[in-house]
Amino acid sequence: MKPVNSFVISLFAIMSCAQIANAQDVTIKYGKIEGNKQDNSIKYLGIPYASAPIGEKRWTEPTAPQNWSGTLKADKYGASCVQSLSATLKATSREEPMGKESEDCLFANVFVPKNGGKNLPVMVWIHGGANRIGSSSNPIYDGDKFARDGVILVSFNYRLGLFGYFDHKAFATDKNYNGNFGTLDQIAALKWVNENIEAFGGDKSNVTIFGESAGGGAVLNLMTLPQAQGLFQKAIVESGGGWQKFKTREEFSTEITSKMETMGIAANSSIADLKAIPADKLSQFDSGMGFGPYIDNKLVKTDVATAFANSQSTKVPLIIGSNSNESSLMDRFGLKPTAIFANPQSKKLADMLYDGQNLDDTQKARKFFTDSVFAAPAYTIARDHSVNNKTYFYNFSYLAQIMRGRADGVGHGGEIPYVFETFSSIARIAPFLTPRDNEQQAIVHTMWVNFAKSGTPSANSIEWKELKKDAPSMMSFDDNNQNKPIANATKYEAIEKALKTQN
Fold first, then answer.
1. Least CB-packed of 12, 46, 232, 404 within 10 Å?
2. pLDDT (tens digit per residue) in 38-86
3. Which CATH fold topology does 20-502 show?
4. Assessment of whether the complete model's pTM goes beyond 0.90
5. At residue 426, what are phi and psi to the nearest 5 degrees?
6. Options 127, 385, 412, 445, the catalytic residue
């Protein structure tokens, strides 16, 4: 037998030491987890926070994950939830899932500071995607920079499309049925954080939930639900709307049953029949622009705007705002100006609001979409919440230098790489970032971090003042990053008076 080459032995020893140095074991309620070191963090990926909602568990409330023996290698993201993509959205989506899709998708990810710590603030990210697409594994949501700055970042997947929000004639006799599974998953994830985050060094009494688009809408919805109270202490809403009109259970069930008939699924199908439908067939269900919560009278009992107007929201500090060109969503969903002005009252209102700006109907439609779907709802939510709570309002219009002259403003989701400081993951922009662009990333990211730590967003010498109902002010994220009066407050209130109850 030949002696083992000493070089091979040395190389093996070096590799073994590197693996030990890069791994960090944590024991949570359900078993031991092995993480891996990133640049600034130890990352734990693909941790089950609930049992797989497959087979008979399709369209049932999430339950606790099973304990595991041995050590779970948390070195890669779990599967993305099954997506529901229209042809237009497929062609334009930035939230396409990373890796495979599966109904077995209820996984969480945790990014912890590389050197650990105790009682660290926690931020829980809820991804966007119209409650139909998206995944926590998107590189733009990497939590490494939050961990670098002393915050534990948690992200997770939740059920989408018909898997996440479902009612049907077959369930009509079950008065306790609650088909808001995506929302129930979000609450289950927050409960998982509450039970387990201390093992990672986190403070379960200092949790900030934040999200964008449908994720921002989820944050608003969670702020109105008694079942979620106590699971977070601060909230951030990025382009989350706020005037979404929730359907009643009867309306939602009738609509779903009817649309499924057009897919060849009979209205008299049994529950067993429905659960036997292949996932890829259900993923073809096209619900239009949005999808999501409905009033089931068990979990969700009213819409967000009504709850905030009646001071029925959780009393926590809030950051809320939108971007300067949210109408980029019109392109992604194939929405024409005629669709925006389908209601003659909307066209009349737009003509009045933008009178004298020399805009054609297409330009008016885009401005009206930005203002009526995002900016005005964010303002009225902020105004109502500010009566009894610390509230910070913003508008985001800072464009990276390379995008100036190529874009009409900051599109929907355009603030995310600043918040996460992850422009490096966007290949078409990263090589062209200027020192000023990188400075802007640092400023925005730091404000979010400091809000999580103390409840007050700030960065360097920049002061972000609270919005007060009698003196509305906001942070304008632009070349100057300045706090200033909300010049459009009167316009937003005019839109609110005309349209709020119709959305």
1. 404
2. 899 999 999 999 999 999 999 999 999 999 999 999 999 999 999 986 5
3. Rossmann fold (3.40.50)
4. yes
5. -105, 100
6. 412
